[in-house]
Amino acid sequence: MTDNNNFWWTVELSVPVARYNRAFNEERLSTIAALTDAIGSEISTEKDFRGYDRLFLKTDYRSSESIDEIINRLDFILTDENFRGIEITRCYKTENQDWDTQHYEAFPPLPVGKNLIVTASWHDKEAIPEGRMPIYIYPASAFGTGYHESTQIALTLLEEVVKKGDSILDVGTGTGILFITALKLGADIAIARDIDPSTLSEAKRNMNLNGINPGACDLSEGDLLKGFEGQVNILTANILLNPNIMLLPDVKRVLKPKGFAIFSGMTNIESYMFISVLNSSGLMIEREMRIGDWWGCRAIKAWG
Known about the structure:
The protein is α/β, with parallel strands linked by helices.
């Protein structure tokens, strides 16, 4: 079955929450999203009919899967004792927004890091402040428009270290915003991969918007680092907790000496789980960053 780009599946789960166990339940819900390969998730709090707080997890899944497959996967995980009390409340299709018909001012220029500004393609160049490098992104269905906190974290951590002549490997590239930024900052070559082939055309469109030579990036469908044998100066992964963890055993192998690995796409609560795995993978955190509920880090080789 191929992706129908007109929608994705959304499943909502909930659990009662008391003040003493809120963080515990938020962590359990985030873990479910990671374990079930959700392409996006959001946790919120709402009142039930008795006036008590309930935590709700809204998870999104690709339309290439059937909803029965997704529900079966969730049902299996919810049988685990660690997820007692969590239940599926509803599921439905979420239609892709037609960005072409959205009001253009919905995506105003957004300063990021020290010298970057992310902006939708239709804004006038005159709106770019002096001293800021524009990164033009056409908001579409791929992850990474630059307006999400996790992407802002990744961009900031990237801007601080990329230098002329670097090579970058962008895992789960989405819109391509990270490798495009690296190339505009002076990197020589990029390798970009995404497991979802429908995102590649969006990355190509954004390369064109930013005047990137198509030959500067090896852009292809790929699952994490499977089949990649080279080494790069910088690895970026603005993806979910579970794929980030799956990535870790191969990161040291693909980093050049004094290279950097940038991880984002995880919540503050999820960071503790990720750090515990990262510390045993031959990497060490050189810098952490938080914006709102989101967390990311830049790591280097711990030895060798």
